[in-house]
Amino acid sequence: MQNRRIVLASRPEGIPRPENFTIVEAPVPELGEGEVLLENQVFAIDPAVRGMLDDVKSYMPPVQIGGLIPTMVLGRVVKSRSPQFKEGDFGRGFIGWEEYSILNPGSVAFENVTVDPAIPLTAYMGALGWSGITAYVGLHRTGEMKAGDVVVVSAAAGAVGSVAGQVAKLRGCRVIGIVGSDEKAAHITGDLGMDAAVNYRSAPDLTAALQAACPEGIDLYFDNVGGRTLDTILPLMRPFGRIPVCGMIDNYNHQTEQYPIRNLWQVLVNRITMRGFLAYEAPDMLHEAETQLADWFRSGDLVATENVTVGLENTPDAFIRLMSGVTSGKTLVALNDRVTTLG
Ligand SMILES: NC(=O)c1ccc[n+]([C@@H]2O[C@H](COP(=O)([O-])OP(=O)(O)OC[C@H]3O[C@@H](n4cnc5c(N)ncnc54)[C@H](OP(=O)(O)O)[C@@H]3O)[C@@H](O)[C@H]2O)c1
User: Fold this and answer.
1) How many Cβ atoms are within 10 Å of 233's Cβ, its own excluded?
2) Same-domain status, 101 and 193
3) Cβ–ligand 1 contact at 247 (below 6 Å)
4) Fewer beta carbons within 10 angstroms: which end of the chain, N or C?
5) Of all atoms in ligand 1, which is nearest to the CA of residue 180?
6) E strand or H helix at 318, and its extent?
7) What's the domain range around 247?
8) Nearest residue CA, atom 30 of ligand 1?
């Protein structure tokens, strides 16, 4: 059986370009003991992968030239040598941009996903998948969120941020989202129910705009972007505020020239707890997060948003748009047009 895979052709400089990627064909290897073969249905397109395309130290090894581009996949099991999976199940794990993947217990985020046929499949790769789980873990565990907190979320119209803002509202917080366009601002306050939005691109003075939106200061800043936004927020934190560091996308396209953080002293002034986290390192919260997110989705309390590109060959384009900052909701690739989406 032949597989089509997308590999790294050259290292991107800045925002990735189509020529950084190429499609190759290779036979699907034989299954080993404990492994399952997935026919991939959906890829989750993640900003963190941009960091893995540079030859620098990250929390995952850099992709080598000719190496498969890593990604979270959701696929239907077509062959199983694992007692945990049977044919027709849905397997999810961090594998790569390819039509068929072999999943084994060593795969990051290896999971047999129970799919409710009443819920579109793509939701399990966005708000009900790792984006939602990340928001949930970051707020509850790393951020120690409490009802009544003033919570600020950056990239608040994005995959993780859109869920983080809604979950914080559902837990009784006041939520301010930071976004990069007026359309996104209207979306997060109108469709997603956040209390206020700040457009960091158009605000003439970002500090003043955030002070106006949170005059009482900030208890919890859910950081998706780092850079200037983080630097601006540090002095606005309340004493004993918490900053769960989910990601720093502002740095990803230019890792060697990162924005200089000038206000780090404010961590001491405001006795801030600032801590990075990786959602897949909280497996004990997985069941709670998945169950709660699905319940909120079914009851209509959680709005899932996504943008879906169809076809393996269009995956680089979806990634390039994500890294250009123009997307809203979870960026996904459906491998065929039979995949059910949120519409
Ligand atoms: N720790 C974990 O376990 C974990 C898991 C998943 C994701 N993450 C991280 O969470 C963050 C959000 O990921 P996501 O998947 O939800 O992405 P996303 O928010 O759907 O998409 C990225 C958004 O980031 C904003 N952005 C801000 N500065 C940017 C820049 N310099 N270049 C491009 N975009 C920029 C853009 O929105 P605006 O128009 O609003 O600026 C853009 O639409 C990322 O940092 C990611 O690495 C962490």
Assistant:
1) 24
2) no
3) yes
4) C
5) 39
6) helix 315-323
7) 137-280
8) 250
